[in-house]
């Protein structure tokens, strides 16, 4: 009877702990949803092609497998993407990923950031046959200027890194020493020494007798 009562108490404690965890989890999810709604961007679908995000106009150039979902785009959209000519969103594991590309005739960015490399990006970095969309930015915004304080910090960091590299190179550089060539022993002297060793009368000899 005592064992049964102990087991019942332990079960009740376990159930209460699980319920508390569930409540905490639900509260965390609710706070997260509120934060997403508060910071979400405003996405307005005007027609099948024209879309407005925070009052800026975009054209929906491609919408493969209905990858464009206005609510999710509003949650995932970042102001950093406004500097790009095209914005590509692809789905993987129920998560939307968005990336910016420059126009074909643009000299900005690296070669892989050009929209002409879109197919390479889809083949290499996206799930096979995944849903995706392409937005054409009609109002490209210039990138925000870097504050003077951050510039000074970055320049100081670069100078410090250069100094550290010079110090490391100084310590890691190989030291060269002049090594003199040793004289080769004379063959005649070696033969004489060996002969003297063989015919030395003072040298002791031992013999092992068998029992």
UniProtKB/TrEMBL annotation:
Renumbered residue ranges of the record's region Disordered: 146-211
Compositional bias (Basic residues): 149-168, 178-211
Spans traversing the lipid bilayer: none
Record carries keyword Disulfide bond: yes
Cysteines joined through disulfide linkages: 126-130
Keywords, comma-separated and alphabetical: Disulfide bond
Protein name: Transcriptional regulator
